[in-house]
C-alpha cells in the first residue's frame, strides 16, 4: 500500500493528513513533507494519522525527527490517532510521553499542551 499526504491550515496550525502505511518504503515521503513544511515556516504541526493502516520504527523515527525540527523553532507537533493498534505502538515505545496524542483534529488544534 502507498502513502497519501495532504496538508491544510486550521487556525494557526498546519494539519498534515496521512493515510496508508508509514514504513521503510514510504517514510521518506513523509520526512520530505515535514521538512518542507518546517522550511516554509510552519512550526505548529498536527499530523492526522486517522487513516494510517500501519506504522513501523522507520515511521516513528520520521515523526521524532519532525518533532525535533519544529522544536528547534519553538514549535509543536501533535498527533491525531484513535486506532488502538497504532496507539499501542506509541505506548510500547514510551512515545506517548513525547507526543501529545489527540482523538480528533479539532482537539489537537484547540489544545494548549
TrEMBL record:
Residue spans crossing the bilayer: none
CDD domains (alphabetical): STAS_anti-anti-sigma_factors (cd07043)
Domain STAS: 3-112
UniProt record similarity statement: Belongs to the anti-sigma-factor antagonist family.
Name of the protein in question: Anti-sigma factor antagonist
Organism field: Streptomyces orinoci
Organism lineage string: Bacteria, Bacillati, Actinomycetota, Actinomycetes, Kitasatosporales
Amino acid at each position: 500500500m502507498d502513502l497519501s499526504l495532504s496538508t491544510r491550515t486550521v487556525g494557526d496550525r498546519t494539519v498534515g493528513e496521512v493515510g496508508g502505511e508509514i514504513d521503510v518504503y514510504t517514510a521518506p515521503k513523509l520526512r520530505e513533507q515535514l521538512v518542507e513544511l518546517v522550511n516554509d515556516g510552519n512550526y505548529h504541526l498536527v499530523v492526522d494519522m486517522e487513516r494510517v493502516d500501519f506504522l513501523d520504527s522507520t515511521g516513528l523515527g520520521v515523526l521524532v525527527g519532525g518533532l525535533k525540527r519544529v522544536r528547534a523553532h519553538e514549535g509543536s507537533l501533535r498527533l491525531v490517532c484513535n486506532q488502538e493498534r497504532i496507539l499501542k505502538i506509541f505506548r510500547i515505545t514510551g512515545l506517548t510521553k513525547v507526543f501529545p496524542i489527540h482523538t480528533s483534529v479539532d482537539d489537537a488544534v484547540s489544545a494548549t499542551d
